[in-house]
């Protein structure tokens, strides 16, 4: 999928834990974990709005469009950020 979810990076920069964000925006920790890992097929705009309000960011900080041919180049960089 050409949409990369960078929620984990934004949360780390703001030092926000998953359980705190999940409670603040009204979703389960399991659903937040699935969202962070990019394993969801859809995202409600109300949820995206709540995340952006709580983290004081824009949707583009969390979601990135990457053309199909470039996905392989982006994923290792994302893994390097997690270390």
UniProtKB/TrEMBL annotation:
Pfam families recorded: HTH_26 (PF13443)
Residue ranges constituting the HTH cro/C1-type domain according to the UniProt record: 21-62
Gene Ontology MF, one: DNA binding
Taxonomic superkingdom: Bacteria
Alphabetized PANTHER family for the sequence: DNA-BINDING PROTEIN (PTHR37301:SF1), DNA-BINDING PROTEIN-RELATED (PTHR37301)
Name of the protein this chain belongs to: Transcriptional regulator, XRE family
């Amino acid at each position: 999928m050409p949409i990369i979810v960078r929620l984990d990076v934004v949360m780390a920069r703001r030092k926000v834990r998953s359980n705190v964000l999940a409670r603040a925006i009204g979703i389960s920790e399991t659903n937040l974990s699935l969202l962070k890992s990019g394993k969801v097929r859809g995202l409600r705009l109300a949820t995206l709005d709540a995340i952006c309000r709580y983290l004081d960011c824009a949707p583009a900080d969390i979601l990135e469009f990457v053309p199909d041919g470039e996905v392989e180049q982006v994923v290792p960089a994302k893994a390097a950020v997690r270390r």
